[in-house]
Amino acid sequence: MSTYFSLFRRTGTAALFVFLLAPLVAVIIVSVNAGATPKFPPEGFSLRWYGAALANPAFTGSALTSLVLAAVATALGTPLGVAAAFGIARGKLPSSLRGLLEAIFLSPLIVPGIVIGVALLVTLSTAGLRDAWLRLTLGHVLLVMPYVIRTSLAALQSFDPSLEEAAHTLGASRRQILTRVTLPVLRPAIFAGAAFGFIISFDDAAVSIFLIDSSTSTLPLAIMSYMQYNFDPSIAAVSSMLIAITLAGALVIERVFGLKKFLGN
Fold first, then answer.
1. Distance CA 212, CA 220 (A)
2. Does domain 57-263 correspond to CATH entry 3.40.50.1100?
């Protein structure tokens, strides 16, 4: 019985991986199609659509916007997320309030992006904030923070308090303990959360679509706009490059820190 169950589990796992990875592999194969339209299987092998994508100013300009936006959002969201994690984990709060705050801060992880986008659009428009860059920055900070909070909370829960006690016994001030003991120990978890937040911010479309204006666009939205009037493999080429960048980032995080630290205990 155990042998059949093990075989069934392995088969199910393999089928799940195929189901998840097959669309990505298909996009990559289509991106090297030599023909003028996306076709599977491809008519021939060619990298010309990668060149066409890199030469398209709509893609390169929006990619730069997405890169800068993700970097700014990560730079702002990371310290805010770390501060929120410290407040939740070490604040003198009732357990019920602590749980409520954690649920609120982590809610962007489960709330649909379209809901967050509409809520931000209504709120920021009511407040008179019409600058697209400011709205996008605020929205993407909101996307980055939960990832930093989640990894920081997981690290704080497994943090050995004797390290801080030893530093305090040796005469270190609270500031020195924080900067020379606590934060260095938490650095891998903080970096992992920031890296995930950067990837999510760079790839976001559901929230950004409600916050842009006619002169500002991110790369995912530029892809969506291009597909309305064009149908060629350059879209697959851009998508393949995004897949490669995202996969590389995830592999780096897994290799250096391990995804279990992101998921928590």
1. 12
2. no
Q: Would you give per-residue pLDDT tens digits along the chain (265 residues)? A: 567 667 777 888 888 888 888 888 888 888 888 777 777 777 778 888 888 888 888 888 899 999 999 999 999 999 999 999 998 888 887 877 888 888 888 888 888 888 999 999 999 888 888 888 999 999 999 999 999 999 999 888 888 888 888 888 888 888 888 888 888 888 888 988 898 899 899 888 899 999 988 888 898 898 888 888 877 888 888 888 888 887 887 777 777 666 554 444 4
Domain boundaries, the chain: 57-263
- Record the tokens describing residue 208, joined without a space: 């950004």
| Predicted structure pTM score | 0.83
> Over the chain, what HEC string results?
CHHHHHHHHHHHHHHHHHHHHHHHHHHHHHHCECCCCCCCCCCCECCHHHHHHHHCHHHHHHHHHHHHHHHHHHHHHHHHHHHHHHHHHHCCCCHHHHHHHHHHHHHHHCCCHHHHHHHHHHHHHHCCCCCHHHHHHHHHHHHHHHHHHHHHHHHHHCCCHHHHHHHHHCCCCHHHHHHHHHHHHHHHHHHHHHHHHHHHHHHCCCCHHHCCECCECCHHHHHHHHHHHCCCCHHHHHHHHHHHHHHHHHHHHHHHCCHHHHHCC
Phi-psi region of 192 (alpha: psi -120 to 50; beta: other; left: phi over 0): alpha
Give the count of beta carbons closer than 10 Å to the beta carbon of residue 152: 25
Contact 223, 238 (CB under 8 A): yes
